[in-house]
Amino acid sequence: MKRFLPILLGLIAAAMLLVSGCGDRRDLEDLTVILMTGIDLDEKGNLLIYESSPVFSREAKDKEEEYGIKALTLRQARVKMDAVVSALSVGGKTQLVLLSKKLLEQKDWFRLFDSSFRDAKNSINARVVAVDGPVAEVIKFYPRDKPRLPLHLVKLIDTSARRNLTVKTTMQELQRQMTDKGLTPYITEIRKEKEIKLNGTALLNEQGNYVTRLEPQENMLLRMLQGQGKGEMPMTVSIPDIQSTGPIKLNELSFAVRKVSTKVKTGWQEDRFSFQLAVNLSVVLTEKAIPPGEKLDEQELERIIQEQMQNQLTAFVHKIQKLRIDPFGLGNYARAYQYDHWSKIKERWGEAFAESRVNIALKVRIKDLGPIK
User: Fold this and answer.
1) DSSP 3-state assignment of 255?
2) Residue 273 to residues 200, 335, 338, 353, Cα–Cα distance (Å)
3) 278: in domain
4) Which of 2, 39, 172, 232 would suit a FRET pair with 127, their CA atoms being 20 to 30 Å apart?
């Protein structure tokens, strides 16, 4: 046995070298790798589904191919796409899912993505984006002096989310938001002008229907109240005690929020929920545009910023309450600390939140005034 053991091991090693390491191996040139999917409705209400894929061919003049077809479901669209593309379609590398506002206004639109979660080969990390306008205008856009459109949009969204100008919601995150009764969903919004422009954040209601859009400045307020503000938040407030006329405004303070801490206390008073939000901001002064001779010490600057931000946050919460939505996720606190009351209204949390009391206690601390006085 000792004499035959080396021979046996050699035969096994030779057999392993002949076996392919990947039984379902496919060449990249034989695949249509879908990087971007778009869904829209035509004038008659028919479902339009678009796909954008890179072309891996030296002979091809266009380095991307886009297709748009009418279909009843995403799975049916994939079958129809395979009839016109030159290679096998795969969706595991999808980076973006574009949804028109017209689609987001329809009932049960999220049911279209059943196949996306049912098939493990599909990507659930794709960013979900609302499009203000026809999806086809975005899908067929070729940006100059920029990477491929899907890669350009991914970088635009991710960078803007790090700067708190919008949110980054993936398919997996959107599914969580749609099934969580303690908050309402929110996704990135863009629109096509001469270039693709970040529009802000689209807010949806409990059914997933489009309600309103947040400007980038409002999105920063949203992230503060969510306690999710990571990275810098550049903001500007006016100094009410200084009057300024003309094109050069000399009553503005600019600062960057470096750290946000938000704590929530939940109560039940007078047959409605009450929320006490303690928000602490650590800021760095980046600009002090005031007339010559005006002097503002650190305590005065903190007071001005605190008062202006307090007014902005309070007005923002009241605006959201009137829309009967809760992107802050305060319903989760109601469920955790006032479950008996929550269980009775969980199916209509948007209405209950609109009637709730929300008080904000803001505290601002300036950590750095800059190298000059």
Assistant:
1) strand
2) 30, 11, 9, 8
3) yes
4) 232
Q: Under DSSP, is residue 174 helix (H, G, I), strand (E, B) or coil?
A: helix
DSSP label of 207? T
Domain CATH number, residue 279: 3.30.300.210
Contacts of 267 (CB under 8 A, 6+ apart): 273, 274, 275, 276, 338
End of a domain among 181, 198, 214? Answer: 214
Reported as type and span, the H/E element at residue 56 is: none
Residue entry with tokens 């001005």: 304
> Among 107, 98, 281, 257, which residue's Cα sits nearest to residue 191?
98
CA distance 267 to 250: 43
The pLDDT tens digits along the chain (373 residues) read 556 566 666 667 666 655 555 555 555 455 567 788 999 998 888 899 888 877 665 655 566 677 777 888 877 777 777 666 655 555 567 889 999 999 999 999 999 888 778 777 777 889 999 999 999 999 888 877 777 888 889 999 999 999 999 999 999 999 999 999 999 999 999 999 888 999 999 999 999 999 999 999 999 999 999 987 777 788 888 888 776 666 766 778 889 998 999 999 999 998 999 999 999 999 998 888 777 767 778 898 899 999 999 999 999 999 999 999 999 999 999 999 999 999 999 999 999 999 999 999 999 999 988 776 6
- Give me the amino acid identity at 45: G
Q: Please give the angle made by the CA atoms of 156, 159 and 165, to the nearest 5 degrees.
A: 95
What global pTM score does this model have? 0.85
Domain ends where: 171, 188, 214?
214
For residue 340, what are the contacts with CB-CB under 8 A and spacing of at least 6? none
One domain, residues 339 and 366? yes
Residue 113's CB is within 10 A of a number of other CB atoms, namely: 22
Structural domain for 163, as ranges: 28-214
CA distances from 117 to 73, 124, 171 (A): 14, 7, 9
**CA 288 – CA 154 distance, rounded (Å):** 35
